[in-house]
Amino acid sequence: FEEMSFAYPGRGPLFKGLNLNIEKGKVTAIVGSSGSGKTTLANLVLGLFQPAAGRITVDGVPLQEIKRETWLGKIGFVSQDPFTYHSTVAENILLGRNNHSQESIVRAAKLANAHEFISEHPEGYDAVVGDRGMRLSGGQQQRLAIARAMLDDPEILIFDEATSSLDTISEKQVQEAIRSVSKNRTVIVIAHRLSTIEHADKIIVLEDGQVIEEGSHQELLSRNGQYSRLAASHEQRTGTQLLESNIGND
What we know:
By secondary structure, the chain is of the alpha/beta class. It has 10 helices and 11 strands. A hairpin with a 2-residue loop joins strand 10 (202-207) and strand 11 (210-215).
């Protein structure tokens, strides 16, 4: 993002001269208060919105010059609310892409930490998940969504608040899936639960359309800035969740 500005129609500018670099093969996390533009940033990466000024480039090439189908074919996207429809597990992973083998479906499910719970069902990948996935837990639905995103082996993964609506156990299972699929890929993680992004290579803190801090989790904590205040507020709300997460990964 080079001096990039963006505003929704009829509203003031959300981003004003934003400069931001997302590195290939690294996990970049985006955090910030509500309304700071985290999800809008993801939509700009997807090419759904166009900057009002400045530009977004990929390896120096303006994003608008890249064919949309080519660009989106490189991206796997997982949102806060996974779309699960009344069909089989396999069909929910395929989502109409019938050029994939059963082996490809299983590979994607294994990467997403979903194969085990699928295999425990007597009907396995042929099990019907129910209307809106009612026969699955929230964490299971989210891991199916990750498997769906992994099916085409994308170079780039975007997780937009992928764990925000999950309980603690489900959140940890989805976090494991995110870490598994993030290896050797360019990953953007948008989150308000800091436990989701502690292990990111770089964390970017947005405020009022600008990057106000960036660095690793430990670097940002040591600066006693906005990220440190977000972490303290998070720990107050969740008790020892951050501490337990750190101990579990020593």
